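General statements about sequence and structure are easier to judge against a single worked case. No coordinates are needed to read the tokens, only the vocabulary itself. The sequence in question and its structure tokens are set out directly beneath this paragraph.
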Amino acid sequence: EVQLVESGGGLVQPGGSLRLSCAASGFTFSDYAMSWVRQAPGKGLEWVSSISSNGGSTYYAESMKGRFTISRDNAKNTLYLQMNSLKSEDTAVHYCVKGTSTVGYDYWGQGTQVTVSS
């Protein structure tokens, strides 16, 4: 059974930092690209960032470039998202998402809440 369990969310002041983690199990983690997707209150899903299966390639939404860093540790089956210079508009539930062998996503974690507020 595929499981994706996020952690690391919380309340942070504007300009602060958080590091999200996603512990993966039930599949060969190193074989798949992974992504972070978020949903702000009252809004639709927004792609945040993706990383290739070996970590060699990373991709970011324009508004996250320079502030967020996606990474993975295939030995630990864990995906990360380092978020710096957080803004109020980063407030959202952040989901860890597993890529498929072709395109798209097939499994989602339960999400972790990130709240940026003074």
